[in-house]
């Protein structure tokens, strides 16, 4: 009982973290469409949160196609896969115990 509740709590927290990070990626992508002030602390925080992941993706996949950077879409798809697969797997494991 305690172990299944722990796994369910971990799955819930993982789902929340993935959802928040997806929103960070969406906001950062929308901000790049305008000219943000690079010295703004919010813009700097968004870039520090997203650029390392984009750089990792860009190392293996060419993401700029026709002048459009597809790295945010690739990251969001990967996070959605993790959310659907891993979180549901953890919930199923918790319900099976």
From TrEMBL:
<dbReference type="InterPro" id="IPR003425">
    <property type="entry name" value="CCB3/YggT"/>
</dbReference>
<keyword id="KW-0812">Transmembrane</keyword>
<keyword id="KW-1133">Transmembrane helix</keyword>
<feature type="transmembrane region" description="Helical">
    <location>
        <begin position="70"/>
        <end position="91"/>
    </location>
</feature>
<protein>
    <submittedName>
        <fullName>YggT family protein</fullName>
    </submittedName>
</protein>
<dbReference type="Pfam" id="PF02325">
    <property type="entry name" value="CCB3_YggT"/>
</dbReference>
<comment type="similarity">
    <text>Belongs to the YggT family.</text>
</comment>
<keyword id="KW-0472">Membrane</keyword>
<feature type="transmembrane region" description="Helical">
    <location>
        <begin position="12"/>
        <end position="34"/>
    </location>
</feature>
